[in-house]
Amino acid sequence: MQILSKSKLNAALDLLSRQAELFVPLARGEESGYYPWKSYQAGSDQLMLDALNVMLPPKGVVFPQTERIYSFTGNDKGVEIKESFENHDPRIIFGIRACDTAALDCFDDVFLTMGYVDSLYAARRENTTIIAHACYRPGDNCFCAAMGIDPTEPTKADVIIRDTGDAYIWESKTDKGDKLTAALSSLLEDREAATPEMQAFKHQVDYEGVAEKLKDMFEHSIWDELSQTCQTCGICTYVCPSCYCFDIQVKSWGDEGYRFRCYDSCMYPEYTQMAGGHNPRGDSRERFRNRFLHKLEFFKERYGKPLCTGCGRCIVACPAGIDITQIIKQIKEADTSAGA
């Protein structure tokens, strides 16, 4: 098998960053997320490969928080599209965990299937290579296995690395992975190493049957209780690796301008505010209910999998202490007889 010694890790990252824009998990001040390796500042930034998830997920690499869609100009005949802004630059995500690769799989479902291809997303996604980091020691808030994800075999990975202590086992899975393997050939060693042993999850929840049960719980009184403490701040949607809600705005001056899209949140009343003033989810209870029905029922009905990938970020970030695993447990225990 091929092995990358940790003593050669920085050299490997430097080499990869010459192949494409390389994103790695970093702690930077009070924040942590996936940042370009070329922006790494020794002494202030900390590489987070040995930790579990950083707070901000890597979805921004393929689905930026803000991006231009197209520019336009007006004339006597109407509006003319000048330029669309698909970005085909090569990029690499290094150290992404299985919960986050599963989230990218959900993005692929939304933006590349069901008869619709989002050209902005497709351009970035097609030119992104994924080096995934297999997990063997789940964190206190991890529950990916309960959502049908194998943390030791990340989906959609071009390369999988496995931490053996002083080195990483390097496994190429695709043609893209083979190209990166060839580029790192001078740093990789051929020798045997023991695969880490999987440890038990501390956070347990049983999702089985929840999507089916929720079909009869739209008007259930449980939503009054569950939504009571929610502040509708939206932080859960921004730290979630699989949330993809966005808004489209326009910036113009004179006869010229451009449209852009930016992250939005279903937890905000403006998200469903209609031009005439009506809002089908004007109440915080309705927005809370929609979020969890989408995560646990609607997405599975459409794409065959839940939209939650069990990363635990929302549990950590929520200022009200709302825990999606506790919501799942309460749904399973709820009485759905008439009048409940």
> What percent strand?
15-25%
Q: How many structural domains can be distinguished in the coordinates?
A: 1
- Euclidean distance between termini CA atoms: 58 Å
Give the CA-based shape: globular
How many helices does DSSP assign? 11
Major sheet characteristics: 9 strands, mixed
Oligomer: single chain
pLDDT below 50 for ≥5 consecutive residues: which ranges?
none
Order of helices and strands: EHEEEHEEEHHEEEHEHHHEEHHH
Helix fraction by DSSP (H/I, runs of at least 4): 25-40%
Number of strands: 13
Radius of gyration: 22 Å
Structural class, by secondary structure, is alpha+beta
Mean pLDDT: 96
Q: What does this protein structure show overall?
A:
- β2 and β3 form a beta hairpin.
- This protein has eleven helices and 13 strands.
- The strands form two sheets. Strands 1, 2, 3, 4, 7, 8, 9, 10 and 11 form a nine-stranded mixed β-sheet that branches.
- It is globular.
- It has one domain.
- The chain is of the alpha+beta class.
Layout of strands and helices, then pairs:
Elements: E1 2-5, H1 9-19, E2 21-28, E3 31-36, E4 45-47, H2 59-62, E5 66-75, E6 78-84, E7 91-96, H3 98-112, H4 119-126, E8 128-133, E9 159-163, E10 167-172, H5 175-183, E11 188-190, H6 210-214, H7 222-226, H8 235-239, E12 246-253, E13 256-263, H9 284-303, H10 313-317, H11 324-333
Parallel strand pairs: 2-7, 7-8, 8-9
Antiparallel strand pairs: 1-10, 1-11, 2-3, 2-4, 5-6, 5-13, 9-10, 12-13
